[in-house]
Amino acid sequence: MKPRRVVLPTFELTEVCSPDDPGARPRTLPTPDGPLTYYYRVVIADDVAMGMNATSDHRVPACAIKLFPVVLGEDGKPWTEVCLQIIAKVIAMAGEVKIHTLLGYADDLLAYLRFLIATNTDFTVFPKLASLRPTYKYLGYLNRNIESGAISKKTGRRRMGRVIAFYNQLIIEGRIEPEYPPWQRRQALVFFSTPRGKTAKAVETTDLSLGGTGDANDFDGTIQDGGKLRPLAPEEQIEIIRALTALEHTEMTLIFCIALFTGARIQTILTLPSSAFSKSPNGLSEIILSVGEGIADTKKGKSLTLYFPPWLYQAIRVYIQSNRFSIRRDRWVRKCIQPYAEPLFITTHGNAMYDTRKFQSDFNPLAHIRHPKTGQVVRTFMAERLIPFIRENGFPKFDFQFHDLRASFGMNLTDEGMLKVERGELKLSELRNRVRTRLGHDSTATTDQYLDFRKKVQLHSRAQEDYESHLTSLAKLACEATQ
């Protein structure tokens, strides 16, 4: 059997106990000799911290989550050391469970397990010759995969980092005692940007580092803004809107328009509640919508402000009153076990398109889903309908990722602002602050990538009429598409 990662719909950390212990529950298992009954109870958070047994049923469980990842070996049995570390991570998160972090950790350790099996390597044995130690062998393996293009340097660095963290914890807990060190420690300076400029910090690293900060490329037409984003050319943006209009998918049209005209990330867009669109847009040049802090999920949970053009805000209000939305909402209500805010975007089956952080953190013993909802329905629509449609209609090599719409919004905002700077109607510092605020950047260094983008790709300044015409035609097309 091939090593794999499975996801349990629910998981509670329990312990075997006596029938008369507080919180004891019976469980009966069938055996060849007849039914076997034993008693167990949920481990309480206080017990983990104090080393005590449970005395009350109302205290918080130490580890109770939905979507618990388990790494299985060739024999189909869980990899004990990884499972224990995932449980420890859940306990450390103290209610703020990050499902994607846990799944990513499990996937990277699964990749390591497959390497161990393929190379017949014992992960606990560290011989005198460094090149034969599992950590150094894995470093060489990752480097070869990076050179061949099988994985990116970013992926390789993340996997190596998680393997190092895995061993660190095993050594701290005394689960393994390597005869020779799994790596050599060393000091290094890390340079990074802050709102006040660039600074450096001394950190302890290892000689297992793959080096660098990512794939080498001085400028490849992308912007580093929560990932490598490619601002789409004006004609590409128009083709996307035209394709959405032709495909007649109301929800997707609204989702893509929100991304292109507000710069919101997919996580924020798909966790917007329908109740956020109760205000009338009459007479307003922009409708301000605050997100974060329970209104809609944002990156790192910080508070942000979205600025909606009135036509888009009104199109959403019309959609909420439609029969199409009513049918989806009714299906969602029938499925919803716990009281959550009604999402704006619901699938035809009545599911939310993106699980909120609160939904992920709230334990529900009746949950049966084995994968988190992270906007897969949008990416599937792009891969199976939107991009093929555009390729078949005059752009055979067209491709993009959803997050590129955010970069496109940022560049549209920058290009429009630069025209005002050239006319003396706006200061460059004011434009920088406007772009930074609307995109929610912590660092002006990220914002400056937008301001410098045109210069880097050596594009000539476009005339005022060109950009105003582009933005006007884009808004008109999108408005017609959402009617």
From TrEMBL:
Which SUPFAM superfamilies does the annotation name?
A: DNA breaking-rejoining enzymes
Q: What's an example Gene Ontology biological process for this entry?
A: DNA recombination
Q: Which domain of life is it from?
A: Bacteria
Q: Does the keyword Lipoprotein apply?
A: no
From the record, give the transmembrane residue ranges: none
Q: Which GO terms describe its molecular function?
A: DNA binding
Q: What are the boundaries of the signal sequence?
A: none
- Which UniProt keyword terms apply here? DNA recombination
Please report the name of this protein according to its UniProt entry.
Answer: Integrase
